[in-house]
């Protein structure tokens, strides 16, 4: 159990640092008030987890600790719903209901579509 928690913790740390760096990089490339950095991280994370789920369905390609490292750890640290909700809260607080609505709808719809795309790509291989 301790080993499993260690793998998840290292994955979460790596995912969280990756999320922060990528989100800031993307956000700094735009002057928009729209939280595009977090949006892109969430969409990329959905795609990655779709790829992983597709790989897992192909058979015993990974051991349990590696699966937990990648999904619960890395992807969990990389795509946090709390960051998503925090961004929406800030948009509402600033009175920007349009961006909030667009951000919420686009994140959910695109997230599912990219998860499905990642899964489907692995199934084609």
Automatic annotation (TrEMBL):
Transmembrane regions listed in the UniProt entry: 6-22, 34-56, 68-85, 97-122
Q: Which residues form the signal peptide?
A: none
Bilayer disposition of the protein:
Multi-pass membrane protein
**What catalytic activity is recorded?**
fluoride(in) = fluoride(out)
Q: Where in the cell is it found?
A: Cell membrane
Q: What controls how active this protein is?
A: Na(+) is not transported, but it plays an essential structural role and its presence is essential for fluoride channel function.
Q: Which domain of life is it from?
A: Bacteria
Q: Kindly give the Pfam families that the UniProt entry links to this protein.
A: CRCB
Under InterPro entries, the record lists: FluC
Listed A to Z, the keywords are:
Cell inner membrane, Cell membrane, Ion channel, Ion transport, Membrane, Metal-binding, Sodium, Transmembrane, Transmembrane helix, Transport
In the UniProt record, does the keyword Glycoprotein occur? no
Positions annotated to bind Na(+) = 76, 79
The record's similarity note reads:
Belongs to the fluoride channel Fluc/FEX (TC 1.A.43) family.
Q: What does this protein do?
A: Fluoride-specific ion channel. Important for reducing fluoride concentration in the cell, thus reducing its toxicity.
Q: By its UniProt entry, which PANTHER family does this protein fall under?
A: FLUORIDE EXPORT PROTEIN 1-RELATED (PTHR28259:SF1)
Q: Which HAMAP family match?
A: FluC (MF_00454)
Name of the protein in question: Fluoride-specific ion channel FluC
């Amino acid at each position: 159990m301790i080993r499993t928690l260690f793998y998840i913790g290292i994955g979460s740390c790596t995912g969280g640092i990756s999320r922060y760096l990528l989100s800031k990089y993307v956000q700094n490339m735009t002057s928009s008030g729209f939280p595009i950095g977090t949006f892109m991280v969430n969409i990329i994370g959905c795609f990655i987890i779709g790829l992983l789920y597709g790989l897992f369905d192909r058979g015993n390609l990974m051991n349990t600790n590696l699966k937990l490292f990648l999904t619960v750890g890395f992807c969990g640290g990389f795509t946090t719903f709390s960051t998503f909700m925090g961004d929406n809260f800030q948009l509402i607080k600033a009175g920007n209901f349009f961006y909030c609505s667009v951000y919420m709808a686009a994140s959910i719809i695109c997230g599912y579509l990219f998860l499905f795309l990642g899964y489907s790509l692995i199934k084609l291989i």
